[in-house]
Amino acid sequence: MNSRAVLGTFVKLGRREVIEILALAGLDFAICDLEHSQITEAEAGHMIAAGKSCGLPIIVRVAHFDPGQINRLLEAGAAGIQLPQVQTREQATALRAACKYPPEGLRSVSLAQPAAGYGSEPLVEYLARSNREVLLVGQLETRELEQPLTTLIEGLDVAFIGSLDLTVDMGVPGKLEDPAVQSRLREIERAASSAKVHLGIYADSPVRAAQTAAAGYRMIALSSDLGALAAAAKGWTKQLQELAAEPASKP
After folding, report:
1. Does residue 148 have a cis bond before it (omega within 30 degrees)?
2. Beta bridge partners of residue 60, listed in sequence order
3. Are 223 and 239 a contacting pair, CB within 8 Å?
4. In the 3-class helix/strand/coil scheme, how is the chain assigned residue by residue?
5. Count of the separate structural domains present in the chain
6. Confidence band for 239, pLDDT divided at 50, 70 and 90
7. Does residue 251 fall inside a structural domain?
8. Please, which pLDDT band fits residue 4 given cuts at 50, 70 and 90?
9. What's the pTM value of the predicted model, to 2 decimals?
10. Which residues pair with 139 in a beta bridge?
11. Which pLDDT value is given to residue 235?
12. Mean pLDDT, the chain, as a whole number?
């Protein structure tokens, strides 16, 4: 991942057109959300292929840990896997094992798949490239996290804070500025710095995204495709209502 902050969004509509629009908008990545959407695994495969064709890396947030599904998504060409509700080192270690080929992990090998160019890439080169490039994102979003946090997140590429879920689990829904929530954020930030793991976070607005980038977060997911669609539609209706309320100009 770059030293600068990269900006993406969650995608909840399983359409090639959405991926192409996001790429044209200049985003750095998109997260195909299999946890909180109706996207099927087959649709995720089409989205990954669309991302590859237009140069937009697609990370897939899975609903739960399933090594078989993770392998299929990576073989389809996913740039990385995002696992929600990571609370223990064991979970983070299992994610790494499922995403990495031996000797770094336990992932099963096949070259008859898109990510390996259907066998056009030499085996040794493909294994090394995949182990080097696949992004491991662990989502921290609960009150209970195994200590020490530095040990928990070691081996991940990104410690991604699910900020909304975190506020809910800590009993202050939506209150990101609550002192207890802010204390937990600082704790995770210090652990990531010690473990040399990048920080990621969900941001609900461009202002919040800019604030987190300035604070050192490097993977920022701004809203979602549905959020953008809803905001645009509401903006249109508000503007039309305001125009309709204006007094008619005299001839």
Report:
1. yes
2. 32, 81
3. no
4. CCCCCEEEEEECCCCHHHHHHHHHCCCCEEEEECCCCCCCHHHHHHHHHHHHHHCCCEEEECCCCCHHHHHHHHHHCCCEEEECCCCCHHHHHHHHHHHCCCCCCCCCCCCCCHHHHHHCCCHHHHHHHHHHHCEEEEEECCCCCCCCHHHHHCCCCEEEECHHHHHHHCCCCCCCCCHHHHHHHHHHHHHHHHHCCEEEEEECCHHHHHHHHHCCCCEEEEEEHHHHHHHHHHHHHHHHHHHHHCCCCCC
5. 1
6. very high
7. no
8. confident
9. 0.94
10. 160
11. 96
12. 96
pLDDT at 163 over 90: yes
Any domain includes 1:
no
Domain span at residue 216? 6-243
How many other β-carbons are positioned within 10 Å of the β-carbon of residue 246?
7
**Is 248's pLDDT higher than 90?**
no
**Taking the CA of residue 51 as centre, how many other CA atoms within 13 Å lie in the half-sphere pointing to its CB?**
28
CA-CA-CA-CA torsion for 100, 81, 30, 236, nearest 10 degrees? 180
CATH number at residue 113: 3.20.20.60
* Angstrom distances, CA of residue 152 to CA of 68, 174, 188, 195: 23, 26, 10, 9
Cα separation, 3 vs 20, whole angstroms: 25
For residue 61, give the nearest of 107, 18, 10 by alpha carbon: 10
